[in-house]
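re the bet — no i am not wrong, look at it urself. input seq straight from the record:
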Amino acid sequence: MRKSIATSRAVGTETVEERPDSSTDADGKRASKARFHCGAGRPMSSSSEIWHANEWMHEITTGRVASITYAAADGTPLTAWLLLPPDYVPGGKMPVITVVYPGTMYGTAEPSIFSPYHTDFEHPQLFAALGYAVLLPSMPPAKNPVDSHALAPLSSGVLPALDAAIARGIADPDRIAVIGQSDGGFATLGLITQTTRFRSAIASAGFSDFVSLYGTFYGQYRYGDAGPPQKGQVFRMLQLEKGTLGLVGPPWAEADRYRANSAILHADKVATPLLLVHGDLDFIPIEQAEEFFTALYRQDKRAVFVRYQGEWHTISNRANVLDLWKRISDWLSETMAARK
């Protein structure tokens, strides 16, 4: 999406700035204009519109948003945000897509991810356009860094947010899905090993087996395209042992921690239909998705695995994004249908 960019030029002793002016009309439709202003924000004696960008936004009606205050399982006050479909009628109970990402805390400001200008191949406004409400729950970061990827705390901020949306009469308790990308994919896989509250799940670029994650090459380094494989592996070792994944040491030294935090070892508890999405060049190895799919296939549980050749951590090729959204729409229509 193209947006106008502020530039400036000298005019005598004044500086003239060409500033983008983003406006929203009464229907929630947005567009950007460029107008002339003088230095210190003073208007010129005359002005003219030189460019009207993003005119296609006039054809788009975005969903309405609302914040929800609630408490985590331990009583911590939290805020979640809800995006409603453009045609939502107050009083109706909606199917809900819950977007998760560990460590994310929301406040009083509307999340930028709701903006139509936000670039996200799994954009919340697209779910809203399909008729789903979208819930963004807060997921408090672990107080101890070594617990940053423990499975047990994942539900602490998520399930109470669902309860709050249901209590408001907005969410249909029988039609709630969970979706996550990257760390959110990890959280999605972890959550469905702990609860049956979700009718459907979508995990993209997720991971669930920390032992194999430790030793598997980065997709783009496997054949030397981005450099020698060892380069990626050094970063992976630091990430797991010293970084955000909080595993303290290698798997042979911290076997119990690796086992406890790996959702793959709890796949027998999964009862939620799962759509797995992964690019084969992702730095999160595609083998992570293959393993979880295999675990569910072995148990004859409902799972679909979609692999995109040549894609990295996010799906970016236009044809692939369009294909993915067709699959997402069909998947949700199947797994989130109202029960008869």
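see?? The chain is about 25% helix and 25% strand. told u. also The CA atoms of residues 179 and 202 lie 5 Å apart. so pay up
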